[in-house]
Amino acid sequence: MKIAIIGAGNMGGAIASGLLQAKAVAPADLYVADPHEASLRPLAALGARTSVRNAEAVAEADVAIVAVKPWLLREVLHKLRPALPPQAMVVSVAAGVSLDALREELPAPPVFRVIPNTAIAAGQSMTFITSDGASPEQEQAVLSLFARLGKAMLIAEKQMAAATALSSCGIAYALRYISANMRAGVELGIAPDVAKAIMLQTLQGAVSLLALTGEHPEREIDRITTPGGITIRGINQLEHGGFTSAVVSAVKASYAN
User: What is the overall mean pLDDT for the chain?
Assistant: First the structure.
């Protein structure tokens, strides 16, 4: 499969480097275009083909991933359309741009909306995919591609905004939780880098535990909070401070319907 990526910024560059490092695509089959040569150099060093011309990058593509800012997307797609080969599937990673809007610029090829999160740079993204005009085989091809960069899920477009609030925005909330714990650790006399290492392993452990048991998080909390113990005192203090309510409110505030 030949893949073109238009845009080598934070997201486009992360997708390109992730695909190469996961060996999901041969370097010769990955073509990345960006008007800024400096953005292309790290990807060229990994073996990707690069160009400052978008049309050159997509000329032989089976999948064209367009990773530009939302306000640039329509212009880029309009100019890209004549250069797309008949077999190309077009994937937009621009937040907030609907399939209908993509279809206005691309009446013929299968189009996909794909929303990763920033953990794609570490190969641990939660990626959501929806499509228009794609066959089940084409959907599976795009799903398999992004599954190499973490976990990927096909969802209905009407669920995209909610999924984005949970994951793309949610990763920031998780990072804020880590930061808050680090501050507490520092106040209790633990060095910041040690507190961070402790929290990273603690959260990895929590995620692995839920994946292993399949239990609801509250069930695992019940196993930790022994009567009269220190954990239940902390849990109650979190709720006294409005922790659960604040998280629910934050996710709902991030929901752009």
Answer: 95
Residues 6+ apart with CB under 8 A from 183: none
Q: Which residue has the tokens 């800024």?
A: 36
Q: Clarify whether residues 62 and 152 are in a common domain.
A: yes
- Number of folded domains in the chain? 2
Last residue of a domain, one of 96, 123, 156: 156
CB within 8 Å of 30: residues ≥ 6 apart: 2, 3, 4, 5, 16, 19, 20, 47, 48, 49
* Residue 243 CA to its chain's centroid (Å): 25
Tell me the torsion sign for CA atoms 178, 173, 147, 220.
Answer: positive
Span 85-111, pLDDT tens digits: 999 999 999 988 999 999 999 998 899
Question: Using the 8-state DSSP alphabet, how is residue 170 labeled?
Answer: H
**Domain membership of residue 232 as a residue range:** 170-253
* pTM of this structure: 0.91
Q: What is each CA distance from 257 to 30, 96, 122, 153, 155, in whole angstroms? A: 34, 9, 29, 20, 15
Residue 65 maps to a domain: yes
Residues 125 and 238 grouped into a single domain: no
